[in-house]
Structures are given as C-alpha cells and as structure tokens.
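A favour between colleagues. Tell me how you read the following sequence-structure pair.

===
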Amino acid sequence: MTKTGLEIISKSFPKNLKGKRIGLLCHAASITSNYTHAVDVFLKSPCKLCAIFGPQHGMYGQTQDNMIEWEGFIHPVLKIPIYSLYGKKRKPTKESLLGLDAFIIDLQDVGARPYTYIWTAKLCLEACAEHKIPVWVLDRPNPISAIKWDGPILKEEYFSFVGGACIPMTHRLTLGEICKLLKLLYFPNVELNIVWMKDWWRNSLWTDTKLPWVMPSPNMPCFETSIVYPGMVLLEATNMSEGRGTTRPFEIIGAPYFNADRLIKELKQEDIKGCIFRRHDFIPTFQKWHNVYCNGIQIHITNCFKYEPVLTTAVILQKILKISDRRFLFKEPPYEYEKEKKPFDILSGDTSLRQALLKGKNLKREKEKWIESYKEFKKIFIEIINYKENY
C-alpha cells in the first residue's frame, strides 16, 4: 500500500515541526489509510494546531456546485479559526498567518491542470514566501499519473485560478512535485519541505495504491471520474452539461439540442481509443439545464493507458458542433474570477483549441502541436520529479 505524506508523519513526526504553531490547509480527503483526518493527526501530534484553511468546496466538501464561495468560521469544538481560501480571499492574509511557525498543505489533487487545489497551493506558497513562513507539503498520489501528457500547454498570458503554470492538461505530477516546480519558477525564497510518499510510482493509477477513495470535491465521486475529468472539464465553458446534477458528473454529458444516437454514430467513425460511448439521457438536478431533459452519453473507460482525455473531448465537441445546428455555444466570462478572457481559453491553455474546433481543423494535427510543445516541458519535468516509473 502507498504511504502518503500524512501517513508518514502520523507514524514519525518531523523534528523540525515539534512544538511549532501550525496552520493546516486541508479538506475532506485529507485522511490516512484508516480514514483518520489530518486535523485529528495534528491534534495528537507534538505541535499546536492554531488555524485551519480550506480550498474550493470547503474544508468538508460542503459546497456542491462549481464556483460557489464559502466563508470561514470558528471550529465549534477546537475554537480555532477556519479560513476560506475560496471566498473573499483566495490567498492567506497576513492576519490569518499571524503567529504561525509553519504552514502545512495536505490536499488530494486529481492530476488535471484546471483543478483548483494546486493553484490554491501556489497562492499559499506566495503568501508564506512574503511572510517568511516555512511550508510543509504532505504529498499524495496523482490518481491518473499513468495517463500520458495530453492537451495544450498553458500559455502564461492565460494564467488564472484554473491554471498558474505552463503545464499540460494532464501533467503526471504530484502535489509535492507541483509545489517544487512553483518554487523553482516563481518563489525561490520560500522554505519548502516535502514529505514524499513511499511505495508510489509514476506509472500508477489510484487503484494501484490500495488507498481509500474519499471525494476530493463533490463532483469527483469516484476514481473513474478523475480519468475523464481533464478533458470533460472543458464542457464547463460551453452550454453543454458536464453532468453536474447527476451522480456521475463528467462521465455523463449532454444537452437538449442534439441527437445522442447520431453523436455516437459519428464518434464510432473516429479512431478513439480506450473508451466506449453509450447513450444515457438525464435531467440535471442543478446547474446547466436544471430540470430539463438532456440527450446524453456516458463514457465508459476500457483502457486507461490508451485513453486520451483531452483529445477525446475535443473530438466530441467537434462532432457536437457538426450536428447541433449552431445551438452549441462557448460561454462568455466571467468564470473562476476571470472577467475578460473566454472560459474555454483559460481552461484549454489559449485560443488555439477553440479556434480549431470552430474552423473544423484536423484535431490530430492539433495533437501533434501539443506533442511538439511537450519537449520544453519535459526539461523541467525531469528536473523536478521525485518518483520513478515501475516496470
């Protein structure tokens, strides 16, 4: 079984943290293999837990829908502050860090660039660098690290809260490695300590870890969701439902305005590997097309190692554009605190994929451009990675 950073310190607490006053950034999935939450681990440790911080969806995963802010409160039992980093503030304030000797980050990421937790971590690194507070990252698995790089590299001029480094949509990095990259590129003066995992390999999937799955966010109900998410998250920037309001978001997608059977027929003509499409209509209980009958499909993954999440989504969108009689639309801002650039562009990386879809360009050529761009990313990837492949 893989041992996470939290698991490791629960058994052997770092000497440099003993007696320290700490702040802890965590959420519902911040648990050990026996389901003990990080808060309880630190309460029993030889340090003093002074403040708790929570990312998007709250410390307990309480905000169900996307882009719903929450505000902090006083822990009803511990009587210490719980600060929201997805509300009026997304970066820890000077006041919230006052008196802390160390800042601990324990978040379960899902391996996709738009997932906001890594960018909350970036803002925490920035704040701690400014106030000279050491950061400790308790590393956790990337559930889809075995899936190869896919999607465009994010361009710096399209940085936002859904992307803050020039990496692909599927990046194969853990949270600890992402923080190492962020220190290298942006915060060289931050004191960064990473508690690396044991018995985890680069080409692992979540199922290889033998760890329990706890939803890292309300619309990430199971490991299978994380496989399709890096591509299907692009639907958030369209008038198609990404399945929010169903029990299998991002796997079930659709809209009222297209013929699902025709879509499946069109997709069968393409060389799409690692999945099967099946008709599955639905009525969302919230979000887009709330209480409206949607013609839809469900994506069933048959081979994770062959599946290309971003390219597959791009092909689906291209087919939807073909058969929807101009009823498919890209959404306008605002989206995730960005008020000017199009949501699809900040998610995908720049304007190129959206323009390719609108112009009906050959998506395999777009994929070739992505592969070419990975050459530069590979240089920094090799420099910052901590884990090896296991053959």
About this structure: The domain at 5-217+380-384 is CATH 3.40.50.12170 (Rossmann fold). The chain has two domains: 5-217+380-384, 223-369. The mean pLDDT is 96.
